């Protein structure tokens, strides 16, 4: 606040002096031949009495809006917005826009800053209207469209986001295919929730037309096919996830296991797991194999398998599964000790994130296709290694 006042004091004094020189009023004080507006002393009084907020308001009021001071107003508005004082930023930018003599270029700049104020304040409808107005006035269309996309994403208006993204592609030549693919996935998810499966299929077709490597599309397709009893199709599209983005295979392993079981071809699933484990052991493959062995041959066989595989793929989740199986195989005394160890392991796992954004480091328990922190699409991946999978 002190830095802001130091900036305002001389500017307000000069601006007020110029205004007073042009329009001499009784509200001015003459000191050594110079006429200084009384508001200047009012602002100083607020400052001396430790009322900096009121002082700032007075000094802003003194700034006459003209060609020479527009940049000062814009700088002050931006400073307020960065400080989180959005109401003040809005007042300053609205004050600029209200001046009929403001040149068109500076008016558009003030409109843009006001739109940013509303965006920061979460008043999305007003921000949207201003960005649309800027496009009509011939402002930087690509910048305005990107801001509109930001708004539409927050509003979950995916059709509008698609329209804006396609306009950016046409204007700039920059590919928006990855983002557009996710917008169609969002629409497909909504259609699936509403039990409109045909529409969901159509949206996912559009997704893959824009990004053939969108693993999310086949994850959703697998769920749709499984829910429709089309288990072979569910298996087919779920397996394609490995080719699109192997990082997301953990998202389809459970569905693959269920689908193979539904059609009585669990041995094929075992062959698939064995192939993947031989290529690169991941704990989700190993645990899926252990589940199968436990179901078909009992706990001891599953324990033996995990004991052999765990050194190749150390994992807290693997350890937790082993402890759970061992507890049923030991006497009461050992069971109490293992139960304590398992409880400790469970708590460790409970406090560990499962997914992390590879761009900004955001971590959480649930998958987000758009990172809540950096807002990028497709950057939140399953965590691998000791604490992951």
What does this protein structure show overall?
Strands 4-3-5 form a three-stranded antiparallel sheet, with no helix packed on it. A two-stranded antiparallel ribbon has the order 1-2. A hairpin with a 5-residue loop joins strand 3 and strand 4. Helix 6 packs antiparallel against helix 7, helix 12 runs antiparallel to helix 13 and helix 18 packs antiparallel against helix 19. The protein has four domains: 145 residues, Serine Threonine Protein Phosphatase 5, Tetratricopeptide repeat (Alpha Horseshoe); 89 residues, Tetratricopeptide repeat domain (Serine Threonine Protein Phosphatase 5, Tetratricopeptide repeat, Alpha Horseshoe); 70 residues; 38 residues. It is elongated. 69% of the residues lie in helices and 4% in strands.
List its traits.
Serine Threonine Protein Phosphatase 5, Tetratricopeptide repeat, mainly alpha, 389 residues, elongated, 3-stranded antiparallel beta sheet
Q: List the uncertain runs.
A: 5-9, 11-26, 28-36
CATH class of the largest domain: Mainly Alpha
| Strands ordered across the widest β-sheet | 4-3-5
Helical content band: 55-70%
Q: Structural class of the helices, strands and pairings?
A: mainly alpha
- Output the helix-strand order: HEEHHHHHHHHHHHHHHHHHHEEE
Biggest pleated sheet: 3 strands, antiparallel
CATH superfamily descriptor of the largest domain: Tetratricopeptide repeat domain
Give the helix tally: 19
- Give a count of the beta strands, DSSP E runs of length 2 or more: 5
């Amino acid at each position: 606040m002190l830095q802001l006042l130091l900036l305002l004091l001389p500017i307000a004094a000069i601006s007020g002096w110029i205004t007073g020189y042009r329009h001499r009023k009784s509200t001015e004080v003459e000191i050594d031949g110079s006429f200084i507006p009384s508001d200047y002393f009012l602002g100083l009084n607020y400052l001396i009495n430790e009322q900096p907020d009121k002082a700032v308001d007075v000094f802003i009021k003194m700034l006459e809006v003209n060609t020479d001071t527009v940049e000062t107003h814009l700088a002050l508005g931006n400073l307020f917005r960065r400080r989180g004082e959005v109401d003040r930023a809005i007042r300053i930018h609205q004050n600029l826009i209200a001046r009929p003599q403001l040149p068109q270029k500076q008016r558009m700049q003030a409109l843009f800053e006001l739109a940013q104020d509303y965006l920061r304040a979460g008043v999305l409808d007003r921000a949207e209207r201003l960005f649309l107005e800027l496009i009509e006035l011939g402002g930087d269309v690509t910048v305005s469209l990107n801001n509109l996309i930001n708004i539409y994403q927050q509003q979950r208006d995916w059709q509008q986001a698609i329209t804006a993204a396609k306009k950016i592609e046409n204007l700039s030549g920059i590919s928006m295919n990855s983002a557009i693919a996710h917008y169609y996935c969002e629409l497909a998810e909504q259609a699936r929730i509403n039990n409109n499966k045909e529409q969901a299929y159509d949206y996912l077709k559009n997704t893959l037309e824009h990004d053939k490597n969108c693993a999310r599309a086949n994850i959703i397709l697998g769920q749709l096919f499984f829910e429709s009893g089309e288990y072979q199709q569910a298996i087919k599209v779920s397996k394609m996830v490995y080719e699109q983005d192997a990082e997301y295979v953990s998202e389809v392993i459970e569905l693959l296991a269920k689908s193979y079981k539904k059609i009585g071809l669990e041995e094929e699933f075992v062959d698939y797991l064995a192939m993947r484990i031989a290529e690169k052991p991941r704990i989700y493959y190993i645990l899926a194999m252990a589940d199968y062995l436990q179901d078909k041959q009992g706990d001891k066989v599953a324990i033996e398998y995990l004991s052999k595989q765990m050194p190749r793929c150390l994992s807290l989740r693997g350890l937790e599964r082993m402890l759970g199986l061992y507890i049923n195989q030991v006497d009461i005394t050992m069971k109490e000790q293992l139960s304590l160890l398992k409880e400790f392991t469970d708590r460790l796992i409970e406090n560990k994130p499962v997914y992390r954004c590879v761009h900004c480091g955001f971590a959480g328990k649930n998958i987000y296709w758009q990172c809540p922190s950096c807002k990028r699409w497709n950057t939140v991946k399953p965590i691998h290694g000791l604490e992951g999978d």
